Amino acid sequence: MKLQAVKGTNDILPEQDARWRSVVDAAAEVLGTASAGRLTTPIFEHAEVFEKSVGDSADLVVQKEMYTFEDRGGRRLSLRPEFTAAVVRAFIQHGMHTRPLPVKLWSAGPAFRAENVQRGRYRQFHQVNLETIGNATPLADAEAIELLYRTLARAGLTRHRIQLGSVGDPEDRAAYNAYLREALAPHAAELSEASRERLRLNPMRVLDSKDARDQELIAGLKRPLELLGDEARRHFDAVAGYLTAWGVPFEVDDSIVRGLDYYRRTAFEVHYVGIGAQSALGGGGRYDGLVELLGGPQLPGIGWAFGIERVLDALEQEGRGEAAVEGPVLFLVPLDDAAVGEGAALARRLREAGLRVEFAYQRRNPGKGLKDADRAGARYAALRGGSERERGVWQLKELASGEQREVREDELAPLLQAGAPGATKEL
RNA sequence: GUGGAUGUAGCUCAGUAGGUUAGAGCAUCGGAUUGUGGUUCCGAGGGUCGUGGGUUCAAAUCCCAUCAUCCACCCCA
Description:
By secondary structure, the protein is of the alpha+beta class. 40% of the residues lie in helices and 20% in strands.
């Protein structure tokens, strides 16, 4: 056990590939129907892209959860811990504000955080991300949330739940934080150590505490939703209204909080019961102000991301784990040395025609060859030795039924291409 | 960073009152079967017992350290 993948990173094996692709394909399909274009950005950026956007109090920075390093030119670079800042950077760099607004951009790829590992939490993980930049209406929020819900449904999930909240406008947030500080100050000594720290840096996050004593202290307090200003309140109600009208199931969650500073108003998460402690499949929210913060025009935005590994975990809970790896349609078995080259050449031609064909690399006897074909998962095997060569044919055998007949080489492609059921009957 | 559990073959695991060459099932390869597969039977290859140190005549087994994995805290995807 000498060399192995770095802690918190995973190999995606061939048998997992189909599931993986199906999730990304679901996103491409669903998000495409909403005219979102796919944007692929580098996996690393100048560190300041994330540092500026994320805010000083965010854990990403404070707890050094970013993989930041210096390259040979002395540039400080960071592996992306999330997509939003990088997408916004690309949006600004390419002058996308001149396109018809809003601009919808989706992405998929790895992200990195230097955290400790557990189920559903890895150091390299993968996300599907969507950003809608340039529209501040509640309709844009509802659209984004609906797309998130539908993408996951399309990927095969049936038991994911949307939780909707609001962190308010900056003034609301400031007011609520002040309220919390005041309300909790007398009990500060009773709070857990972590929560005392939160109270100092980002009081709202105290609501997130899983400490039983903390929860008791919090129980009687007002929630962020109760202290929303009029505009934020109307915005929230409108988003909820659209979702209800569209039949997107959701629950109001009055304790949704964001670790990142740039969120305003709408905040939401998708959860799934049964995938361990990290039950959030994804989350997102509105970030009016971020584009400007990163040096772009004053444009609002809303976006979300979900974790592909967590979705795959959830799919497994629903009994939709690894799909069987598809075998070749045809497996060619050379029964003598001359047939080895003939088989390879035939395979090449059939592959050129788009068929999935495999062959034995050396002469086999029929028993071995059929065994090879069987284990490769092939549907048909074709054998050829001296007597077949004389007649210019291959013995084509359907493995499942055992039916066999002689076919000329030029008959093979049309026969196999005719498709599974038809070809079977012909035999 | 903190806490708990676990590290024996590619995989799932046996194997402790310490005792010769460390086992099974599955998987792999070969043979039974040099022109017809899946079942079955036979055989083979594959192990620094996570790593390092200690105790002992003797360590997979006991002690210490260390690393890794899993789960949880924290935080989040």
